[in-house]
């Protein structure tokens, strides 16, 4: 459509396609590569309207830098995937039983890491060594379970192992496990 044919007031708003809220933040044009990332993020986030718009080869796509960052942040997307997968797998992922999945379960309490909990991804190999040392110090039931689990994993970083921030701080501070406490040793 020729822009001059448009009704007055119908001109396209210069607006961030992600939040659709006009703010004082500067808008930036998304590159082709950026569009691809946005589309992938839309699929994960189930933002189908936006996906449709992005796939319609718009002349330009404007976003806030901050919106794009949080919209495409891989740790956020991972959390969303976990949340979406959870209900489907709920029956199979009983706490502290069944097969352990490094990518979807906290390796400390063995509970599925839900998106509404504070989840951390293991970034440094030293974390595993540090926790093994803690296991030796604690020498309690929880330490035995965790050390057994850690021994079964060669590379926590490569496994994309995750854990609850809360569980980690409880573990290193000598406290008992909260998330898994109801399930430990019980059916
Ligand atoms: Zn925005
Ligand atoms: Zn946990």
Q: Tell the overall outline.
A: elongated
- Summing up helix and strand content along with how strands pair, one would put the structural category as mainly alpha
Give the distinct bound molecules.
Answer: zinc ion
Number of domains: 2
The spatial strand order of the largest sheet comes to 1-2
Mean pLDDT, as a whole number? 82
Span between N and C termini?
65 Å
Order of SSEs: EHHEHHEHHEH
Number of E strands: 4
H/I helix tally? 7
Can you summarize this structure?
The chain has 187 residues and is mainly α.
Question: How would you describe this structure to a colleague?
Answer:
The structure is a single chain. This protein has 187 residues and is mainly alpha-helical. The chain has helices at 32-45, 48-55, 65-72, 74-89, 126-138, 141-151, 165-172, and strands spanning 27-29, 62-64, 119-121, 162-164. The strands form two sheets. The chain has a two-stranded antiparallel sheet. A two-stranded antiparallel ribbon has the order 3-4. Helix 1 runs antiparallel to helix 2 and helix 5 (126-138) runs antiparallel to helix 6. The longest helix is centred in the middle third of the chain and has 16 residues, at 74-89. It is elongated, with a radius of gyration of 22 Å. It starts with 26 loop residues before the first strand and ends in a 15-residue tail after the last helix. Residues 106, 108-109, 111, 163-164, 167, 179 line the site of one zinc ion (ZN).
